[in-house]
Amino acid sequence: MKKIKKIYVITGSRAEYGILSNLIRSLNKNNNFNLKVIVTGTHLSKQHGFTYKEILNDKILISGKVNLKIGSTTHGDISEQMGNGFKGFSKLFMKSKPDLIIILGDRYEILICATVATLFNIPIAHVHGGEITEGAMDNAFRHAITKMSHIHFAATKRSKLRIIQLGENKKFVLHVGSLGVENIKNTKLLNQQELENILKIDLCRQTFLITFHPETISQLSFEHQINPLLNALKKIENTNFLFTMSNSDLGGDIINKKIKSFVRKNKNSYFYKNLGHLVYLSLLKHCKVVVGNSSSGIIEAPSLKIPSINIGDRQFGREKHHTVFDCANNERMILRLCHKLLKNEYKSKSKTLPPYEKKNTTKNIVKFLEKIDIDKINLKKFRDIAF
User: Using alpha carbons only, what angle is made at residue 107 by residues 155 and 254, rounded to the nearest 5 degrees?
Assistant: First the structure.
């Protein structure tokens, strides 16, 4: 009789859950798996909008919570939150050990989970490994998670090669594409009227969708990181500025405070703790330009043919489509590029697909998990490459 695999999917943020949501549904429907969803990170933070409620609204059962008790975002506070995470995941895995955990990305709560799972000898499947973001601590976290993981679902061909370069067994490294891009293709997005009814905003006016996260290893203060963008936006007329909340990285609360102050002083500016997955993707489709330094401007926006302005070094090294425009963190350069894109003064360089697009992403992940013998993957060997 075939063994039913007990799998935990760990999610720590609104964006990450949105990416994982269709995979969660597919695993839930599959009789080969006993799936449990565990929430942590900003999902359990009041100041970030208690986004675990979005999971419940999707009628997905939450089987466990690991509360990091997220507050402010100083070095000491985040270290303390990480300590809470170590305790919480240890209690979770002592109570019930899964056959496999599925984690995505590079955030510190995911690093905590991977570390504790390694201590408990629990195999790990990692989504979106092998990528590069040299302007953030997440870059190191991501590669560390890769080395603790046993199965790798890479979003791009280059990412797959980097994971193999890190010594991983190529049999367990799959180029599957981005779950987030696939979600866009498979989701019936809201139309402009529906969005206007929900947000009470006139979207006939040109709209910027803006997300700005801290560059956590920059020499610039967090105020100096966000000020050039805000100063540039003050000089743009007849435009909606829709800000989504910065994450809980080091300095995130400082950036949020600056954005809220800007919104209070400038008409047609709005700040959202959590738009929800459907509303965010729908806005992505209906906005004029995506601005900031979020991965969604690089991974998802190109698949909707929406141009994005990627500011500063946070995403430096990540693969980009020609609809993504890198820009130094400089007021004059940001303003010039904003005006250029508002006037449609850019031309497509080619008809190449965005690097994160690939068909049947969820289907191929599920198919691989069905076939894999989890009992035989825990003993890892470092695979040397002949140079």
Answer: 125
Going by the DSSP 8-state scheme, the letter that residue 135 receives in this structure is T
The DSSP element (H or E) to which 110 belongs, if any, is: helix 108-119
pLDDT above 80 (res 346): no
Residue 234, amino acid: K
Give 190-342's CATH code, choosing from 3.30.70.2740, 3.40.50.2000, 2.40.160.20, 3.40.1170.60: 3.40.50.2000
Of 124, 106, 111, 172, residue with least CA distance to 318: 106
Measured at the alpha carbon of residue 18, what is the angle toward residues 190 and 27, in degrees to the nearest 5?
115
Task: Find out whether 248 and 213 touch, Cβ atoms under 8 Å.
Answer: no
Strand boundaries in the chain, DSSP class E: 5-11, 33-40, 62-66, 100-104, 124-127, 151-154, 173-175, 206-211, 239-244, 269-272, 289-292, 308-311, 324-327
Cα dihedral sign, 241-242-247-248:
positive
Using a CB cutoff of 8 Å and minimum separation of 24, what contacts does 83-89 make?
A: 85/40, 85/109, 85/112, 85/113, 86/112, 86/115, 86/116, 88/40, 89/40, 89/113, 89/116, 89/117
Is-contact 155 367, C-beta < 8 A? Answer: no
Mean pLDDT of the region 324-340 = 96
Buried b (16+ CB within 10 A) or exposed e, 203-241: beeebbbbbbbbbbebeeebeebbbbbbebbeebeebbb
The CATH code belonging to domain 5-177+357-376 is 3.40.50.2000
What is the phi/psi pair of residue 307, to 5°? -70, 150
pLDDT in tens, 32-70: 999 999 999 999 999 888 999 999 999 999 999 999 998
